[in-house]
Amino acid sequence: MKKLFLLLTALITSLNIFAQKLERIEPMFWFTGMHNPKLQLLVHGQNIASNAVSLNYPGVKLVKVNKVENPNYLFLDLAISPSAKAGKFPINFVAAGKKQTYIYELRNRDKSPNRIQGVTNKDFIYLLMPDRFSNGDKNNDVVAGLTETGLHRDSMYSRHGGDIQGVMNHLDYLKDLGVTTIWMTPEVENDMPMASYHGYAVTDHYKIDPRYGTNELYKKYVEACHAKGLKVIKDVVHNHIGTGHWFYKDMPMKSWVNQWPKFTNSSYRDQTVMDPHASAADRKQMIDGWFVPSMPDMNQRNPYVQNYLTQNHIWWIEYAGIDGLRLDTYPYNDPVYMADWAIKLKAEFPHLSVFGETLVTAAANQAFFTGGNTVNRGFDTHLQGVTDAVLKDAIYEGLNGKSGWIDGVNRIYATLAHDFLYKDPNTNCIFLDNHDMSRFYSMVNEDFSKYKEGMTLLLTMRGVPEMYYGTEILMKNYSNPDGLVRSDFPGGWEGDKKNKFVADGRTDKENEAFNFVKKLANYRKTSPALQTGKLMQYVPQNDLYVYFRYNTAAKGTVMVILNATDDDKNLATDRFSERIKECTSAKNIVTNETIALKEIKVPAKTAMVLELN
Fold first, then answer.
1. Tens digit of each residue's pLDDT (9 = 90 or more) over 37-59
2. Is 357 marked active-site?
3. Active-site residue, from 288, 297, 323, 357
4. Which of 187, 297, 328, 472 is catalytic?
5. Inter-residue contact 304 to 40 (CB < 8 Å)
6. For the chain, N or C: smaller number of CB within 10 Å?
7. Which residues contact 513 (CB under 8 A, 6 or more apart)?
8. Please, which residues bridge with residue 611 across strands?
């Protein structure tokens, strides 16, 4: 009997040891010479908390081993001294005399030129959805082991097969168009059962979705962009994850995500964050409520969550050399954490550019989220810029609305007059549409004249212009449902009947649109006034809206005239002498004509771009 008892005890012990399995450590590796010497490793594995942990490497100290509610996790606090050298070393996990080892690596920071350059008002951003742009590698169309294995191009919510290689195959197309920066919707793994193509329900923060490629391919993509003089923006999501995330299925602690007695959506009311009269309950529902049932809301007051997200973004930037970040659903995040996050990233990457998605309804609401405490918020968010949805709405009103005291083109003027609210309005990302809203060409009722007016404003206005993929070839549709505005770029798939990446595959009107955008975008590259110049606007008169982009010299100043009416108009220029100064003529950038500046004939539904001589 005693022998049987000893045998069973040994068997149970061996089974427990076998169950103590190290499954992953994140970040998988780190870098020497970081500004912040602290690093917190997330360790996951069955019963891993029962292990004693040790390491021995010059310049690296194991400060603390943190155990949490779930015994399948440890959080290791490391201190990495400035003297630490790149290299590999074992982290040992020992339980009941059995040892598991993870070979950790410190890598040198990459000091190559043209990395982490920042995206500024000198740039022109092209936003695309990788699943819908081009299929460059058919071998990754369907990946065994993932939840969604269908590939159906005739379904708006299914995977279509576009990938990172497809984008790389068309870098020359984007370069020719005049684009300087590419922003893809999130490329990280979204292993969700349906509609996983959009990328906003991450299931692995450290892994490129295998249907798009690999981490190594993503790094090569960034390098290929930089080699062609293009920059890269990465779209990151602080606020939520997908229910398929590996750590949601086995959470480190209950407070890893925001918990409610029963499922509670966010109210989506950004006003509650800034309203001095708001109830705490309303504010909590806005920030802590889940975006949708399939996207759990991260608890950013949890210090372990904070470290995890911040380190993940630092890791991707340093690993791949990304130039800027777009922050999804910015108003829904914990504001104190986001300010701390911004400070920590800026300390590591002084040139990095960051802008937050703020789809709100007023300039003051947008400014509330930007840096500088300009609207008496009480603290500095350190957010450089926002997606300027208010200016987008004003441009639509200017193109589609009827003239009135604050209507029509007067809305554009009034909106820009609120730029005093921002620390620097030139860091705002300006746009006409994106993957979440109806396409611009449809919103102007497929009126080609209005299309050209809008594109002119986009490419000559203050801020950092962004254009949604396919706008240059007049792609259209409405966002109800949203999949309709996420169609495939024609020619991005082998066997497509039409290839609109080349002139021969486009219609005459599509080529006219493409060439119009190309003309203005490439001119913008050579115009200091449009890139970094100041903006001076004039109160609209006779339904004509006029603004100037300028530096100190009068020559090179750009004058933009918008006539959104159905009638030709004459514009006397005497009232603009402050900016025109001694110049007597100007070059029409679109037509290449030279015109006198005394009185200008402005055709109906036209936006003129004039460079003063």
1. 999 999 999 999 999 999 999 99
2. yes
3. 357
4. 328
5. yes
6. N
7. 448, 451, 452, 472, 473, 474
8. 558, 587
210: helix, strand or coil: coil
Summarize pLDDT for 99-137 with one digit per residue, the tens: 999 999 999 999 999 999 999 999 999 999 999 999 999
pTM over 0.90: yes
Tell me phi and psi for residue 586, to 5 degrees. Answer: -150, 155
Token pair 């820009």 is found at: 416
Q: How far apart are CA 555 and CA 529, in angstroms?
A: 10
Q: What spatial distance separates the first Cα and last Cα of the chain, rounded to whole Å?
A: 104
Alpha helices in 289-424 (DSSP H): 303-320, 335-348, 363-369, 389-400, 409-416
Residue 328 among the catalytic residues: yes
Provide the edge-to-edge strand list for the sheet that holds 429-431: 385-386, 353-356, 324-327, 231-236, 181-184, 125-128, 464-468, 429-431
394 to 101, 103, 136, 422: CA distances (angstroms): 59, 55, 38, 17
Sign of CA dihedral 455, 459, 464, 467: positive
- 250 three-state secondary structure: coil
pLDDT tens-digit series, residues 60-72:
999 999 999 999 9
Q: What is the CA radius of gyration of the chain?
A: 27
| CA 144/CA 452 separation, integer angstroms | 46
Identity (one letter) of the amino acid at 433?
D
Structure tokens at 474: 């007049």
Q: Give yes or no for a contact between 518 and 471, defined as CB atoms under 8 angstroms apart.
A: no
Note the helical H segments in 228-334: 246-249, 271-274, 280-288, 303-320
